[in-house]
UniProtKB/TrEMBL annotation:
<dbReference type="InterPro" id="IPR019533">
    <property type="entry name" value="Peptidase_S26"/>
</dbReference>
<feature type="active site">
    <location>
        <position position="124"/>
    </location>
</feature>
<dbReference type="GO" id="GO:0005886">
    <property type="term" value="C:plasma membrane"/>
</dbReference>
<dbReference type="InterPro" id="IPR036286">
    <property type="entry name" value="LexA/Signal_pep-like_sf"/>
</dbReference>
<comment type="similarity">
    <text>Belongs to the peptidase S26 family.</text>
</comment>
<keyword id="KW-0378">Hydrolase</keyword>
<dbReference type="InterPro" id="IPR000223">
    <property type="entry name" value="Pept_S26A_signal_pept_1"/>
</dbReference>
<protein>
    <recommendedName>
        <fullName>Signal peptidase I</fullName>
        <ecNumber>3.4.21.89</ecNumber>
    </recommendedName>
</protein>
<dbReference type="Pfam" id="PF10502">
    <property type="entry name" value="Peptidase_S26"/>
</dbReference>
<feature type="domain" description="Peptidase S26">
    <location>
        <begin position="28"/>
        <end position="215"/>
    </location>
</feature>
<dbReference type="GO" id="GO:0004252">
    <property type="term" value="F:serine-type endopeptidase activity"/>
</dbReference>
<dbReference type="GO" id="GO:0009003">
    <property type="term" value="F:signal peptidase activity"/>
</dbReference>
<dbReference type="GO" id="GO:0006465">
    <property type="term" value="P:signal peptide processing"/>
</dbReference>
<feature type="active site">
    <location>
        <position position="55"/>
    </location>
</feature>
<keyword id="KW-0645">Protease</keyword>
């Protein structure tokens, strides 16, 4: 037995424990790097959103997690038929939640982890882009028309009518007309008729395009881009 061991030299014990401490430090640094990388990816490339409601059935079910491309519209235009995620503050949601800051932080963490939805972020389908004349339910015709042409909406929730309220709008530059697929329960552009902005959502509020259902695994599938009259000429 060495003199250092026999005397209970604390420096010897410290030397023995150092590798374990270094190992934990490495693990913590690796975890921190992974979190930072994930945050950067989700902030600039792709994000994951939790679906809290049934407003986009049958395409999206409550509890689904969807992958959203934040760069989808960096090189192309938003098209009719796209399913987009957008910040609804100032339109479908109040600018301020009214909750304490701690509660807001908890909601943000839950949304980031994919465990909860957001009360300011929405997912809807684009029915009208800049220059489009979108209307419904006039002259006894129950269909939605874009620039005078009826839209084939076989994707709408079975049994729903195209809209339970009439509307007739022309979409200005920088705005979108958005509807949920489950029309009878969806709060969308129709909910803001008569309000400032008239239900037209700013393109600057669009976070990205929904690309795929990630969870549950048995529902995992890509979210197709529907071509809703991409060939139609817009009215001037």
């Amino acid at each position: 037995m060495s003199a250092a061991s026999a005397s209970g030299d604390p420096s010897a014990k410290h030397t023995k424990r150092r590798p374990r401490f270094v190992g934990w430090r490495f693990v913590l640094c690796a975890l921190a790097a992974a979190v930072i990388l994930a945050a950067l990816v989700r902030a600039f490339l792709f994000d994951v959103f939790y679906i809290p409601s049934d407003s986009m059935q049958p395409l999206l079910e409550p509890g689904d997690r969807i992958l959203v491309s934040r760069t989808a519209y960096d090189t192309e235009q938003i098209q009719r038929g796209d399913v987009v995620v957008f910040d609804g503050r100032g339109s479908l949601a109040p600018l301020h939640s009214g909750r304490p800051a701690v509660a807001d932080a908890a909601v943000t963490v839950g949304r980031w982890l994919g465990l909860a939805g957001s009360d300011t972020v929405y997912v809807k389908r684009v029915l009208g882009v800049a220059g489009d004349h979108v209307s419904c339910c006039s002259d006894g015709d129950p269909r939605i028309t874009v620039n005078g042409t009826p839209v084939d909406e076989s994707y709408v929730y079975p049994g729903d009518t195209p809209s339970d309220s009439a509307f007739d709008v022309v979409v200005p530059d920088g705005r979108l007309w958005l509807l949920g697929d489950h029309r009878s329960v969806s709060a969308d552009s129709r909910s803001l008729l008569g309000a400032p902005g008239g239900g037209l959502i700013s393109t600057e509020r669009v976070i990205g395009r929904a690309e795929r259902i990630l969870w549950p695994l048995e529902r995992g599938t890509s979210i197709d881009r529907l071509s809703l009259g991409a060939e139609w000429n817009t009215e001037k």
